[in-house]
Specification:
Order of helices and strands: HHEEHHHEEHEEE
Oligomer: single chain
Radius of gyration: 19 Å
Structural class: alpha+beta
Shape: elongated
Mean pLDDT: 78
Largest sheet: 5 strands, mixed
Low-confidence stretches: 83-92
């Protein structure tokens, strides 16, 4: 259902369906797989989440358009629209914004800003502070199904900017 909504351009509705189902897309791309609330990973087959590429409509076949040129133009237009909406990739130096989805509540994710060279332990403290969690509670950070080591940085453990991490609250 979410795939067809995305194909129809209804991104917000698709996100609402995923949120209601408790599904997380860490990379923001369905082809990279999805996680449910329990942390189970689901690999989605590429033909299910992508448009067919080997189909030519009658109009295109008659005009003799090159489909690859058209795809390149569409990618450039999409990139320009993302930048206009403020969703383009920004290089902001040594700081990164991390979106964390807390396991003990639904609703809004917690976003924290930290340096690229800071470790996961620092991020946990910032998440606890931002979410108003008690210091006595324990928080572990998981990314793509793995619990991250607190003494290492996110980047060293394979995290990519823009991806969502799971904050497991105990």
């Amino acid at each position: 259902m979410a795939v067809s909504l995305v194909a129809d351009g209804e991104i917000e509705t698709a996100q609402g369906v995923l949120d209601a189902a408790g599904v997380t897309l860490p990379s923001g791309n369905m082809i990279d797989g999805a996680y449910d609330e329990m942390g189970n990973f689901y690999q989605l087959p590429e033909p299910v989440v992508s448009d067919p590429i080997n189909i030519v409509s009658e109009d295109e076949g008659a005009k003799g358009e090159n489909a690859n040129d058209k795809d390149h133009v569409n990618e450039d237009e999409a990139k320009k629209r993302r930048e206009e909406k403020g969703k383009g990739i920004l290089k902001t130096g040594d700081t990164i914004k991390i979106k964390a989805r807390l396991s003990d509540r639904g609703g809004q994710d917690v976003v924290v800003t930290m340096g690229k060279d800071q470790n996961v332990r620092t991020m946990v403290r910032q998440i606890q502070e931002e979410a108003g969690l008690p210091d006595v509670g324990k928080v572990k950070i998981a990314y793509l199904g793995k619990v991250l080591k607190e003494g290492e940085t996110l980047m060293a453990q394979g995290w990519q900017e823009g991806h969502v991490v799971n904050a497991l609250v105990f």
